[in-house]
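Problem 12. The chain below contains 228 residues. Write out its predicted structure in token notation.
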Amino acid sequence: MLTSGWKAVSMVDVHGKVTFTLWLCGCNLKCPFCHNWRIAERRECFELPRDAMLEELSSHSFLIDYFHVTGGEPLMYHTDKTFYEVVEWLIEEGVQITFETNGTIEINFKLYPAYRSCIFALSLKLTNSGEPSQKRIVPQALKNLQSYSKETFLKFTIDKKLVETTALSEINEIREILPKLEVFCMPVGESRDTIWKNDRAVFEFCMKHNFRYSDRLHIRVFDTTQGV
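Solution.
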């Protein structure tokens, strides 16, 4: 299981909460606007030192609201024995786990029941990702996550062009599969220089359609620095 590392105390991954954030390497999609593209492409990655990570997690546990797993696509490792043991241990210790996932990987919740206690942010990809719909939208995987996990919500990364064309119809098509989930929209912007080109259009789009706007605070603060 490959990781690019972790951050023991993060305040930019879950709004209003403190997280211990773990980045897992690799992804089954290739989006041109990916901020963590080096992690997705498995650059500068190494085998996860489980004991060292858990030791640091334990020493910061009094500060942490969530153990947040992102990537890359973290669910590529959901059947990994070591990773699943970590998930089980965290749940036993009362630590809330959140995943940021593209929603394309189907979890067998009967075989891996610990994931029923987890929260999943479904960062689904639209046409601006360049990926074909049959690859980025997997209905059964999404239905399983909605039906069996503790909590799920939708999050879309969109730009001004998509707002002006197909964003609403694409989102509504996905909401036919997942009609009960709350919708967050985030502006495309892999750097400070690009995020401002999309943020206002996405904000106004959210206001118009009663979606929730999610900013990219880590990019506004750290620019192109990865792993923050």
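Discussion. Residues 18 and 62 are 10 Å apart (CA to CA). Students who got a different answer should revisit the alignment rule from Section 12.3.
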